[in-house]
Amino acid sequence: MLVLTIRTDKSEAEIGLFDNEQKLAYETWAAHRRLAETIHTKIKQLLKSQHKDWQDIGGIICFKGPGSFTGLRIGLTVGNALAYGLGVPIVSQQRTNWITNGITRITSGENEAVTLPEYGGDAHITLPKK
After folding, report:
1. What is the pTM of this model?
2. Each residue of 72-121: pLDDT tens digit?
3. Spatial CA neighbour of 78 closest among 123, 120, 38, 33
4. 67 belongs to a structural domain
5. Would 126 be classed as within a structural domain?
């Protein structure tokens, strides 16, 4: 099963492709404030580098936190939208071994259907100025 991994909890974003437990490709880039602009292109390029297409994805694993409010929101939204659109399972994991644990869950048939972030605390949202 081809598994896409997404981690967007910090300024450097990470995506990977795995054939079950075997890593096929992995990319880290300085996404900073351009994550929403770059993530789909980076995934497309990663797939192309392995001669794969969107429809080849059989499951998605997202890092759910803790981490950046906006980064997690973007990464999990992309993961959820792809899983829904492609009709594939999605699971989320946190902390160390998130990929290994996620692959175990997804290959055993688990599917969260919708993944939610774990921020590690309350979001720091400023009040409107007006």
Report:
1. 0.92
2. 999 999 999 999 999 999 999 998 999 999 999 999 999 999 999 998 87
3. 38
4. yes
5. no
